[in-house]
Write a structure and sequence with these properties.
This protein is of the alpha+beta class and 107 residues long. The protein is built from four helices and six strands.
Length: 107
């Protein structure tokens, strides 16, 4: 199961379900599974520096500056291609900064 921009998508075998909410997607998967056991794996959305910058309305250099100062969320991994974060961590960081600054973040 994973979120897309306008829906949650889940698979049970070859059957795909789409719903506007996570709960709706889970309910549809449970209906398909019936009495059987249902194990749900949620795939997190990951972002790199470019995506984090886009979420925050910043440029890549500003993200790099905050990372180097230790003022950015901890990445979940550092790959050869760069650091990666959970999208929800970056969004929460942006929302917290916007509240402290009295502004809304750009999406």
């Amino acid at each position: 199961m994973h979120p897309e921009p306008d829906a949650w998508v889940g698979w049970l075998g070859a059957r795909m379900v789409r719903s506007r909410s996570r709960e709706g997607c889970l309910a549809a998967l449970r209906r398909i599974a019936g009495e059987g056991e249902l194990t749900v794996e949620v795939t997190p959305q990951l972002v790199g520096v470019s995506e984090a910058a886009r979420i925050l309305g910043w440029d890549r250099r500003r993200v790099a500056t905050y990372v180097s100062r230790g003022a950015f969320p901890e990445p979940i991994a550092a790959l050869a291609s760069g650091r990666i974060w959970l999208r929800e961590d970056v969004e929460a960081f942006g929302a917290d900064r916007a509240l402290r600054k009295g502004r809304r973040i750009h999406r």
